Protein backbone atom coordinates (compact mmCIF):
# COMPACT_ATOMS: atom_id res chain seq x y z
CA UNK A 1 0.00 0.00 0.00
CA UNK A 2 1.58 3.28 -1.11
CA UNK A 3 -0.86 5.78 0.45
CA UNK A 4 0.45 7.73 3.43
CA UNK A 5 -1.63 7.49 6.60
CA UNK A 6 -1.42 7.65 10.39
CA UNK A 7 -3.29 5.60 12.95
CA UNK A 8 -3.44 6.80 16.55
CA UNK A 9 -6.03 5.37 18.98
CA UNK A 10 -6.77 8.01 21.64
CA UNK A 11 -8.84 6.17 24.23
CA UNK A 12 -7.79 3.48 26.70
CA UNK A 13 -10.34 0.65 26.78
CA UNK A 14 -11.11 -1.45 29.87
CA UNK A 15 -13.39 -4.48 29.53
CA UNK A 16 -14.93 -6.91 31.97
CA UNK A 17 -17.87 -7.86 34.16
CA UNK A 18 -17.70 -5.72 37.29
CA UNK A 19 -15.00 -3.45 35.85
CA UNK A 20 -17.14 -0.37 36.60
CA UNK A 21 -16.54 -0.92 40.33
CA UNK A 22 -13.05 0.56 39.89
CA UNK A 23 -14.38 3.83 38.48
CA UNK A 24 -13.55 5.82 41.62
CA UNK A 25 -9.87 5.01 41.22
CA UNK A 26 -10.14 5.80 37.51
CA UNK A 27 -11.45 9.30 38.24
CA UNK A 28 -8.69 10.08 40.73
CA UNK A 29 -5.89 8.64 38.61
CA UNK A 30 -7.01 10.49 35.47
CA UNK A 31 -7.91 13.87 36.94
CA UNK A 32 -5.77 13.95 40.07
CA UNK A 33 -8.85 14.98 42.08
CA UNK A 34 -12.10 13.46 43.30
CA UNK A 35 -15.04 15.44 41.88
CA UNK A 36 -17.06 14.07 38.96
CA UNK A 37 -20.32 14.77 37.14
CA UNK A 38 -22.23 11.78 35.78
CA UNK A 39 -24.15 12.59 32.58
CA UNK A 40 -26.92 10.16 31.71
CA UNK A 41 -30.57 9.92 30.65
CA UNK A 42 -33.85 9.15 32.44
CA UNK A 43 -34.01 5.61 31.04
CA UNK A 44 -30.64 4.68 32.51
CA UNK A 45 -31.68 6.22 35.83
CA UNK A 46 -34.96 4.30 35.70
CA UNK A 47 -33.33 0.87 35.42
CA UNK A 48 -30.97 1.59 38.31
CA UNK A 49 -27.66 1.76 36.46
CA UNK A 50 -26.97 5.35 37.51
CA UNK A 51 -27.36 4.35 41.16
CA UNK A 52 -24.81 1.55 40.72
CA UNK A 53 -22.24 3.93 39.23
CA UNK A 54 -22.91 6.64 41.82
CA UNK A 55 -22.46 4.09 44.60
CA UNK A 56 -19.19 2.85 43.10
CA UNK A 57 -17.95 6.44 42.87
CA UNK A 58 -18.97 7.16 46.46
CA UNK A 59 -17.22 4.02 47.71
CA UNK A 60 -14.17 5.10 45.73
CA UNK A 61 -14.05 8.43 47.54
CA UNK A 62 -15.38 10.57 44.68
CA UNK A 63 -17.87 13.40 45.24
CA UNK A 64 -20.47 13.43 42.46
CA UNK A 65 -23.31 15.31 40.82
CA UNK A 66 -25.86 13.70 38.50
CA UNK A 67 -27.12 15.31 35.29
CA UNK A 68 -29.85 13.25 33.62
CA UNK A 69 -31.64 15.72 31.33
CA UNK A 70 -30.50 13.99 28.13
CA UNK A 71 -32.97 12.88 25.49
CA UNK A 72 -32.50 10.81 22.35
CA UNK A 73 -31.05 13.06 19.66
CA UNK A 74 -29.68 15.52 22.24
CA UNK A 75 -30.01 19.27 21.92
CA UNK A 76 -27.51 22.10 22.17
CA UNK A 77 -29.50 23.30 25.19
CA UNK A 78 -28.90 20.00 26.97
CA UNK A 79 -25.16 20.34 26.39
CA UNK A 80 -25.24 23.88 27.79
CA UNK A 81 -27.19 22.73 30.87
CA UNK A 82 -24.69 19.95 31.53
CA UNK A 83 -21.79 22.37 31.05
CA UNK A 84 -23.19 24.69 33.70
CA UNK A 85 -23.50 21.81 36.18
CA UNK A 86 -19.87 20.88 35.49
CA UNK A 87 -18.66 24.48 35.94
CA UNK A 88 -20.66 25.22 39.08
CA UNK A 89 -19.60 21.95 40.74
CA UNK A 90 -15.96 22.40 39.80
CA UNK A 91 -15.72 18.88 38.40
CA UNK A 92 -12.42 17.67 37.04
CA UNK A 93 -13.91 14.57 35.43
CA UNK A 94 -17.12 13.89 33.49
CA UNK A 95 -18.59 10.41 33.13
CA UNK A 96 -20.90 9.62 30.23
CA UNK A 97 -23.26 6.80 31.18
CA UNK A 98 -25.70 5.62 28.52
CA UNK A 99 -26.02 5.40 24.78
CA UNK A 100 -24.61 7.72 22.17
CA UNK A 101 -26.76 10.67 23.23
CA UNK A 102 -25.59 10.71 26.86
CA UNK A 103 -21.98 10.11 25.86
CA UNK A 104 -22.06 12.86 23.23
CA UNK A 105 -23.49 15.35 25.73
CA UNK A 106 -20.83 14.34 28.26
CA UNK A 107 -17.97 14.66 25.79
CA UNK A 108 -18.98 18.05 24.42
CA UNK A 109 -20.11 19.50 27.76
CA UNK A 110 -16.71 18.69 29.25
CA UNK A 111 -15.10 20.89 26.59
CA UNK A 112 -17.75 23.63 26.56
CA UNK A 113 -17.46 23.92 30.36
CA UNK A 114 -13.87 25.05 29.91
CA UNK A 115 -14.97 28.23 28.12
CA UNK A 116 -17.67 30.87 28.22
CA UNK A 117 -19.49 30.21 24.93
CA UNK A 118 -22.57 28.06 24.31
CA UNK A 119 -22.56 24.77 22.44
CA UNK A 120 -23.80 26.35 19.20
CA UNK A 121 -20.64 28.49 19.10
CA UNK A 122 -18.70 25.32 18.24
CA UNK A 123 -21.14 23.62 15.85
CA UNK A 124 -19.63 22.38 12.56
CA UNK A 125 -16.20 23.63 13.70
CA UNK A 126 -17.27 27.27 13.33
CA UNK A 127 -14.94 28.06 16.24
CA UNK A 128 -12.27 26.06 18.09
CA UNK A 129 -13.13 24.50 21.43
CA UNK A 130 -11.35 25.59 24.61
CA UNK A 131 -8.31 23.51 25.54
CA UNK A 132 -9.47 20.35 27.29
CA UNK A 133 -8.81 20.38 31.02
CA UNK A 134 -11.66 18.15 32.23
CA UNK A 135 -11.07 14.42 31.78
CA UNK A 136 -13.79 12.14 30.44
CA UNK A 137 -14.74 8.52 31.06
CA UNK A 138 -17.43 6.75 29.05
CA UNK A 139 -19.52 3.83 30.25
CA UNK A 140 -21.78 2.75 27.35
CA UNK A 141 -25.06 0.99 28.06
CA UNK A 142 -25.68 0.20 24.39
CA UNK A 143 -23.50 -1.56 21.83
CA UNK A 144 -23.85 0.78 18.90
CA UNK A 145 -22.53 4.29 18.49
CA UNK A 146 -18.92 3.76 19.49
CA UNK A 147 -19.08 7.26 21.01
CA UNK A 148 -16.93 5.97 23.87
CA UNK A 149 -13.86 6.17 21.61
CA UNK A 150 -14.60 8.96 19.12
CA UNK A 151 -13.75 12.66 18.84
CA UNK A 152 -17.08 13.60 17.27
CA UNK A 153 -20.50 14.37 18.74
CA UNK A 154 -23.89 14.81 17.06
CA UNK A 155 -26.56 17.13 18.41
CA UNK A 156 -29.53 19.21 17.29
CA UNK A 157 -29.77 22.95 16.88
CA UNK A 158 -32.74 24.91 18.28
CA UNK A 159 -34.21 24.58 14.76
CA UNK A 160 -33.96 20.75 15.07
CA UNK A 161 -31.18 20.47 12.47
CA UNK A 162 -28.71 17.67 13.17
CA UNK A 163 -25.15 19.02 13.29
CA UNK A 164 -21.85 17.83 14.69
CA UNK A 165 -18.91 18.98 16.73
CA UNK A 166 -15.32 17.77 16.54
CA UNK A 167 -12.09 18.39 18.38
CA UNK A 168 -8.86 16.44 18.37
CA UNK A 169 -8.99 16.29 22.18
CA UNK A 170 -12.66 15.34 22.49
CA UNK A 171 -12.05 11.58 22.57
CA UNK A 172 -12.46 10.22 26.13
CA UNK A 173 -9.43 9.24 28.14
CA UNK A 174 -11.08 5.95 29.19
CA UNK A 175 -13.90 3.73 27.97
CA UNK A 176 -15.23 1.07 30.34
CA UNK A 177 -17.07 -1.78 28.62
CA UNK A 178 -19.36 -3.45 31.14
CA UNK A 179 -21.43 -6.26 29.54
CA UNK A 180 -23.86 -6.31 32.48
CA UNK A 181 -24.93 -2.76 31.67
CA UNK A 182 -26.39 -3.71 28.28
CA UNK A 183 -28.70 -6.47 29.55
CA UNK A 184 -31.53 -4.08 30.33
CA UNK A 185 -31.62 -2.76 26.78
CA UNK A 186 -35.02 -3.38 25.10
CA UNK A 187 -35.09 -5.54 21.98
CA UNK A 188 -35.71 -2.60 19.64
CA UNK A 189 -32.68 -0.72 20.95
CA UNK A 190 -30.50 -3.84 20.92
CA UNK A 191 -31.38 -4.23 17.25
CA UNK A 192 -31.06 -0.58 16.27
CA UNK A 193 -27.80 0.08 18.10
CA UNK A 194 -26.12 -3.12 16.92
CA UNK A 195 -27.04 -2.35 13.32
CA UNK A 196 -25.60 1.13 13.85
CA UNK A 197 -22.30 -0.50 14.85
CA UNK A 198 -22.45 -2.81 11.84
CA UNK A 199 -22.99 0.15 9.51
CA UNK A 200 -20.05 1.94 11.17
CA UNK A 201 -17.78 -1.02 10.53
CA UNK A 202 -18.88 -1.43 6.92
CA UNK A 203 -18.63 2.26 6.06
CA UNK A 204 -15.28 2.79 7.76
CA UNK A 205 -13.48 0.05 5.84
CA UNK A 206 -15.13 0.85 2.49
CA UNK A 207 -14.64 4.62 2.74
CA UNK A 208 -12.01 6.70 1.01
CA UNK A 209 -9.91 7.05 4.18
CA UNK A 210 -9.63 3.34 4.89
CA UNK A 211 -6.29 1.66 5.54
CA UNK A 212 -5.18 -1.79 6.78
CA UNK A 213 -5.66 -0.86 10.45
CA UNK A 214 -9.20 0.40 9.86
CA UNK A 215 -9.96 -2.67 7.77
CA UNK A 216 -8.75 -4.99 10.54
CA UNK A 217 -10.88 -3.27 13.17
CA UNK A 218 -13.91 -3.19 10.89
CA UNK A 219 -13.81 -6.79 9.74
CA UNK A 220 -13.36 -8.05 13.31
CA UNK A 221 -16.35 -5.93 14.34
CA UNK A 222 -18.46 -7.31 11.48
CA UNK A 223 -17.56 -10.88 12.43
CA UNK A 224 -18.40 -10.37 16.12
CA UNK A 225 -21.77 -8.86 15.21
CA UNK A 226 -22.58 -11.62 12.73
CA UNK A 227 -21.78 -14.27 15.32
CA UNK A 228 -23.60 -12.69 18.27
CA UNK A 229 -26.42 -10.42 17.06
CA UNK A 230 -29.13 -13.05 16.80
CA UNK A 231 -27.99 -14.69 20.05
CA UNK A 232 -28.45 -11.39 21.91
CA UNK A 233 -31.88 -10.85 20.37
CA UNK A 234 -33.03 -14.37 21.26
CA UNK A 235 -31.40 -14.51 24.71
CA UNK A 236 -31.05 -10.96 26.06
CA UNK A 237 -29.21 -12.02 29.21
CA UNK A 238 -26.48 -13.91 27.30
CA UNK A 239 -23.50 -12.01 28.71
CA UNK A 240 -21.00 -13.55 26.33
CA UNK A 241 -23.02 -12.38 23.33
CA UNK A 242 -23.61 -8.99 24.94
CA UNK A 243 -19.92 -8.64 25.69
CA UNK A 244 -18.94 -9.50 22.14
CA UNK A 245 -21.38 -6.92 20.78
CA UNK A 246 -19.91 -4.32 23.15
CA UNK A 247 -16.44 -5.10 21.80
CA UNK A 248 -17.75 -4.95 18.23
CA UNK A 249 -19.29 -1.51 18.78
CA UNK A 250 -16.06 -0.15 20.24
CA UNK A 251 -13.97 -1.63 17.43
CA UNK A 252 -16.32 -0.02 14.93
CA UNK A 253 -16.09 3.24 16.84
CA UNK A 254 -12.30 3.13 16.60
CA UNK A 255 -12.67 2.45 12.89
CA UNK A 256 -14.90 5.46 12.19
CA UNK A 257 -12.74 7.64 14.42
CA UNK A 258 -10.00 7.12 11.85
CA UNK A 259 -11.97 6.32 8.69
CA UNK A 260 -15.25 8.21 8.95
CA UNK A 261 -18.61 7.07 7.62
CA UNK A 262 -20.36 7.19 4.25
CA UNK A 263 -23.63 7.52 2.42
CA UNK A 264 -25.72 5.55 4.93
CA UNK A 265 -24.85 8.09 7.61
CA UNK A 266 -25.44 10.95 5.20
CA UNK A 267 -28.94 9.64 4.49
CA UNK A 268 -29.47 8.58 8.11
CA UNK A 269 -28.63 12.03 9.48
CA UNK A 270 -30.96 13.56 6.89
CA UNK A 271 -33.74 11.24 8.08
CA UNK A 272 -33.02 12.39 11.61
CA UNK A 273 -33.34 16.02 10.62
CA UNK A 274 -36.42 15.64 8.42
CA UNK A 275 -38.35 13.03 10.39
CA UNK A 276 -36.67 12.64 13.81
CA UNK A 277 -35.97 8.99 12.99
CA UNK A 278 -33.90 7.09 15.58
CA UNK A 279 -30.29 7.15 14.43
CA UNK A 280 -29.61 3.40 14.46
CA UNK A 281 -32.82 2.63 12.61
CA UNK A 282 -32.18 5.45 10.13
CA UNK A 283 -28.69 4.36 9.10
CA UNK A 284 -29.75 0.70 8.96
CA UNK A 285 -32.58 1.59 6.55
CA UNK A 286 -30.25 3.81 4.54
CA UNK A 287 -27.56 1.17 4.01
CA UNK A 288 -30.24 -1.34 3.10
CA UNK A 289 -30.98 0.66 -0.06
CA UNK A 290 -27.35 1.59 -0.83
CA UNK A 291 -25.36 -1.57 0.02
CA UNK A 292 -25.58 -3.38 -3.32
CA UNK A 293 -24.94 -0.12 -5.20
CA UNK A 294 -21.73 0.38 -3.21
CA UNK A 295 -20.71 -3.27 -3.58
CA UNK A 296 -20.92 -3.06 -7.36
CA UNK A 297 -18.25 -0.35 -7.31
CA UNK A 298 -15.87 -1.62 -4.61
CA UNK A 299 -16.05 -5.37 -5.07
CA UNK A 300 -12.93 -6.51 -3.21
CA UNK A 301 -13.61 -5.01 0.21
CA UNK A 302 -17.28 -5.90 0.05
CA UNK A 303 -16.33 -9.51 -0.66
CA UNK A 304 -14.19 -9.45 2.51
CA UNK A 305 -17.12 -8.02 4.46
CA UNK A 306 -19.38 -10.80 3.15
CA UNK A 307 -16.91 -13.42 4.40
CA UNK A 308 -16.76 -11.69 7.78
CA UNK A 309 -20.57 -11.88 7.93
CA UNK A 310 -20.31 -15.62 7.41
CA UNK A 311 -21.40 -15.82 3.78
CA UNK A 312 -20.24 -19.05 2.12
CA UNK A 313 -18.32 -17.95 -0.96
CA UNK A 314 -17.84 -21.44 -2.43
CA UNK A 315 -18.45 -21.34 -6.16
CA UNK A 316 -19.08 -17.59 -6.21
CA UNK A 317 -17.11 -15.00 -8.12
CA UNK A 318 -15.75 -12.10 -6.09
CA UNK A 319 -18.55 -9.85 -7.33
CA UNK A 320 -21.21 -12.44 -6.56
CA UNK A 321 -19.77 -12.77 -3.06
CA UNK A 322 -19.81 -8.99 -2.60
CA UNK A 323 -23.46 -8.83 -3.63
CA UNK A 324 -24.30 -11.83 -1.44
CA UNK A 325 -23.05 -9.67 1.43
CA UNK A 326 -25.78 -7.17 0.58
CA UNK A 327 -28.35 -9.95 0.83
CA UNK A 328 -26.96 -11.09 4.19
CA UNK A 329 -27.07 -7.53 5.50
CA UNK A 330 -30.72 -7.27 4.44
CA UNK A 331 -31.43 -10.56 6.21
CA UNK A 332 -29.95 -9.20 9.44
CA UNK A 333 -32.08 -6.07 9.13
CA UNK A 334 -35.15 -8.27 8.65
CA UNK A 335 -34.21 -10.46 11.62
CA UNK A 336 -33.79 -7.36 13.75
CA UNK A 337 -37.48 -6.58 13.46
CA UNK A 338 -36.87 -2.93 12.66
CA UNK A 339 -39.71 -1.35 10.75
CA UNK A 340 -38.47 -0.27 7.31
CA UNK A 341 -41.52 1.79 6.41
CA UNK A 342 -41.42 5.38 7.64
CA UNK A 343 -45.08 5.99 6.83
CA UNK A 344 -46.15 5.83 10.48
CA UNK A 345 -43.36 8.29 11.28
CA UNK A 346 -45.00 10.81 8.99
CA UNK A 347 -42.63 10.49 6.02
CA UNK A 348 -43.91 9.78 2.51
CA UNK A 349 -42.88 10.56 -1.06
CA UNK A 350 -43.95 14.15 -0.42
CA UNK A 351 -40.72 14.45 1.60
CA UNK A 352 -38.35 13.25 -1.15
CA UNK A 353 -37.19 16.70 -2.21
CA UNK A 354 -36.59 17.85 1.39
CA UNK A 355 -34.74 14.64 2.19
CA UNK A 356 -32.46 14.92 -0.86
CA UNK A 357 -31.72 18.58 -0.12
CA UNK A 358 -30.81 17.68 3.46
CA UNK A 359 -28.49 14.91 2.25
CA UNK A 360 -26.58 17.57 0.32
CA UNK A 361 -26.39 20.06 3.19
CA UNK A 362 -23.07 21.20 4.62
CA UNK A 363 -23.32 19.11 7.79
CA UNK A 364 -23.80 15.92 5.74
CA UNK A 365 -21.23 16.63 3.01
CA UNK A 366 -18.25 14.96 4.78
CA UNK A 367 -20.13 11.66 4.97
CA UNK A 368 -21.35 11.87 1.38
CA UNK A 369 -17.89 12.75 0.08
CA UNK A 370 -16.19 9.93 2.01
CA UNK A 371 -18.39 7.24 0.51
CA UNK A 372 -16.66 4.65 -1.65
CA UNK A 373 -18.86 5.51 -4.63
CA UNK A 374 -19.75 8.99 -5.77
CA UNK A 375 -23.50 9.64 -5.69
CA UNK A 376 -25.24 11.80 -8.27
CA UNK A 377 -28.42 13.75 -7.59
CA UNK A 378 -30.28 11.00 -9.44
CA UNK A 379 -28.74 8.41 -7.11
CA UNK A 380 -29.81 10.36 -4.02
CA UNK A 381 -33.32 10.78 -5.40
CA UNK A 382 -33.54 7.06 -6.12
CA UNK A 383 -32.41 6.18 -2.58
CA UNK A 384 -34.93 8.62 -1.10
CA UNK A 385 -37.70 7.20 -3.29
CA UNK A 386 -36.84 3.61 -2.35
CA UNK A 387 -36.92 4.49 1.35
CA UNK A 388 -40.09 6.56 1.28
CA UNK A 389 -42.13 4.39 -1.07
CA UNK A 390 -42.43 1.63 1.51
CA UNK A 391 -45.84 1.51 3.14
CA UNK A 392 -46.89 -0.49 6.21
CA UNK A 393 -48.24 -3.92 5.35
CA UNK A 394 -51.73 -3.06 6.55
CA UNK A 395 -51.95 0.09 4.41
UniProtKB/TrEMBL annotation:
Family classification: Belongs to the iron-containing alcohol dehydrogenase family.
Keyword NAD in annotation: yes
Pfam families: ADH_Fe_C (PF25137), Fe-ADH (PF00465)
PROSITE patterns in UniProt: ADH_IRON_1 (PS00913)
Protein name, UniProt field: Iron-containing alcohol dehydrogenase
The keyword Magnesium belongs to this UniProt entry's keyword annotation: no
Residues covered by the Alcohol dehydrogenase iron-type/glycerol dehydrogenase GldA domain: 11-179
Entry superkingdom: Bacteria
Assigned keywords, A-Z: NAD, Oxidoreductase
InterPro entries: ADH_Fe/GldA (IPR001670), ADH_Fe_C (IPR056798), ADH_Fe_CS (IPR018211), Alcohol_dehydrogenase_Fe (IPR039697)
CDD domains, sorted: Fe-ADH-like
Domain Fe-containing alcohol dehydrogenase-like C-terminal: 190-381
Amino acid sequence: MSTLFEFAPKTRVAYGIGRYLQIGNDVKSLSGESKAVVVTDPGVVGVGLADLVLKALEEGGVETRLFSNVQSDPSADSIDEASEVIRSFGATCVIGLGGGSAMDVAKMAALVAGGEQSAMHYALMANPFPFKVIKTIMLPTTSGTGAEVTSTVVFSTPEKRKVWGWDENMAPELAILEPEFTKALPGFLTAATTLDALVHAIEACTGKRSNPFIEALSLQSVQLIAENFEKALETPDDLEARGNLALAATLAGMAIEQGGTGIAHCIGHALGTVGRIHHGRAVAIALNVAYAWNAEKEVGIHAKIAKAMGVDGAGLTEKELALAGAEEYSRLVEVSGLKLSLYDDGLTKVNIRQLVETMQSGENAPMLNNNCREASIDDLQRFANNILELQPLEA
